[in-house]
């Protein structure tokens, strides 16, 4: 899944102007950015973000998983120990000590396991700077998601242990967007993700019936959401994964508000070409 998640986060932060202009096409593209991964597990995504030179903090309530993540990071010589930190903490505990600290907060494959989603998102946003980005990947609450994530993944193909998922805890993109909006966050991207079990690969899809990714920005009074004038002129927007995603969203039948944001992205970008 990192093949989708890492470009989503990288290009999303470039798109919103969080990335410094000289770094846009550099290997250390996320340098000087502070990122929090909530529910980091064994650190698969945390490490990938650290390798782009962001300062990443991974938190998880499971001491066992955090120990696994720490050991794996220690064994990887390509990782700078100063780029990554792990803590055995809940988001409530961490946000209380780190208010508005992070440029991005990531909750990947976590929300579908959370009972109180409103409180969880509220705490995540409490740790996010105004103007910062919230990235979520999770599972929609649909009949196809029950068939794919529970019947298929758990019972038929045994990709994860049975009982890993509870369909009642799944949540639709529009419901996530409503929660984010109530905390002054503007959703700028929703897109489907699909697991090709025959090739063991994840790919982007217009269909959000099962897995989907969402990017929202915590608004501030002086924050201009579309800051292409400030983005490095050499960045190839047309070939950017992020803009290809937006193009497919624009062609899909998603909620009109998403299409409106896509239109605004292209209108502003075209005016600066």
From TrEMBL:
Residues 36-133 form the Methyltransferase type domain. InterPro entries: Methyltransf_12, SAM-dependent_MTases_sf, UbiG_MeTrfase. Pfam families: Methyltransf_12 (PF08242). GO terms for cellular component: mitochondrion. Keywords: Methyltransferase, S-adenosyl-L-methionine, Transferase, Ubiquinone biosynthesis. GO terms for biological process: methylation. Signal peptide: none annotated. It comes from the Eukaryota. GO terms for molecular function: 3-demethylubiquinol 3-O-methyltransferase activity; polyprenyldihydroxybenzoate methyltransferase activity. This is Methyltransferase type 12 domain-containing protein. It comes from Anopheles maculatus.
């Amino acid at each position: 899944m990192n093949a989708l998640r890492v470009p989503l986060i990288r290009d999303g932060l470039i798109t919103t102007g969080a990335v410094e202009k000289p770094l846009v096409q550099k290997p250390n593209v996320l340098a000087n950015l502070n990122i929090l991964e909530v529910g980091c597990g064994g650190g698969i995504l945390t490490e990938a973000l650290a390798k782009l030179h962001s300062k990443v903090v991974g938190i998880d309530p499971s001491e066992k998983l955090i120990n696994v993540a720490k050991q794996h990071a220690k064994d990887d010589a390509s990782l700078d120990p100063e780029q990554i930190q792990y803590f055995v903490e809940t988001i409530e505990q961490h946000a209380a000590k780190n208010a508005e600290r992070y440029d991005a907060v990531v909750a990947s494959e976590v929300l579908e396991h959370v009972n109180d989603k409103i409180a969880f998102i509220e705490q995540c946003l409490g740790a996010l700077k105004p103007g910062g980005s919230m990235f979520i990947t999770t599972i929609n609450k649909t009949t196809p998601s029950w068939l794919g994530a529970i019947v298929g993944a758990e019972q038929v193909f045994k990709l994860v242990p049975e009982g890993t998922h509870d369909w009642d805890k799944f949540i639709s993109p529009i419901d996530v967007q409503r929660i984010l909006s109530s905390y002054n966050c503007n959703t700028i991207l929703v897109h489907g993700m699909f697991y090709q079990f025959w090739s063991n690969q994840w790919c982007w899809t217009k269909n959000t019936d099962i897995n989907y990714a969402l990017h929202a920005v915590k608004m501030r009074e002086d924050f201009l959401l579309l800051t292409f004038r400030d983005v490095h002129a050499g960045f190839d927007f047309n070939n950017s994964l992020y803009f290809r995603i937006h193009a497919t969203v624009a062609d899909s039948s998603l909620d009109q508000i998403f299409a409106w944001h896509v239109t605004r992205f292209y209108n502003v970008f075209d005016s600066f070409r």
